Amino acid sequence: MQELHDAPLAPLTTFRLGGPANRLLTATTDAEVIAAVREADDSGTPLLVIGGGSNLVIGDKGFDGTALRIATKGFELSGTALELAAGEVWTDAVARTVEAGLAGIECLAGIPGSAGATPIQNVGAYGQEVSSVITEVVAYDRHTRETVTLPNEACAFSYRHSRFKAEPDRYVVLRVRFGLEDAGGRSAPLRYPETARAMGVEQGERVPAASASETVLRLRAGKGMVLDPEDHDTWSAGSFFTNPILDEEEHAAFLARAGERLGADVTPPAFPTGDGRVKTSAAWLIDRAGFTKGYGTGPARISTKHTLALTNRGDATTEDLLALAREVVAGVHEAFGVTLVNEPVTVGVSL
Fold first, then answer.
1. Which of 62, 181, 189, 278 shows a CA-CA span of 20 to 30 A to 76?
2. Highest CATH level, class, for 232-347
3. What positions does the domain FAD-binding PCMH-type occupy (predicted)?
């Protein structure tokens, strides 16, 4: 297991921000992961687990403890059953399932990060979420000091949330198991309007899985959501804020504020969640509050391609990024009475 001291963490994140860790371990097997976690727990050392670093905001002072980078490998496909080691690169795994002609995660192409992070955040995009295809998650339980296997129903998945996110200091994901679909090389039914439009089909139709994946990659790239070291619009964590979910009273108040600000003929996006609540668009809120693409004059700005992405233009600090995020949160709340919540995990800092 590789060990470094006073190790830079910024290169391990897609923001390329953050100070060093006292100690950085890189684990390439499940046994090494468990050993590193147990050592930290036994010694009372703060522990930061890092996968692909695509959903992480680390403070400029760094991390006073042990950072554990999970670099395990393992792609096992048996029929429609897929098992991924936590350290597998997610984009590569998606591509391999598409090549195998299987459906279920083809519209999650291009999402940066590692496989082990997908159940934590219940990663989703373009009409698909991993919660619909995850069958089991194998994790190390720091409370019981045992390796456990949690079936889908025990993971408490919801929108960008899970049991693992609710108890961040308890579970370290080791492996994720998926149940995919053999649809003869076709995709799952397309659920996202933009994807269907781009492919010239109706929602609910199936298309070749490879075509669906390629279309999503093209759409994501157009929004700066596919990593490119030469494009500062991709020096981000993707969507920085989750889409707000409002109860009936909150939604009514929001509609009233939107009507006062933008006119009664404006209809904000609304997506019923099935439990009496409504999800609206964070990107719409940000844009209508005056934070348009490219907003900002400093080293941290809103992406020129997508209002949901906050970006490092090359020489930003974490404090620069947070100042921009706080400005956006305050502006949206002032305009519409809705409080945006950050999607990335923050380490040593907060909004």
1. 189
2. alpha beta
3. 17-183
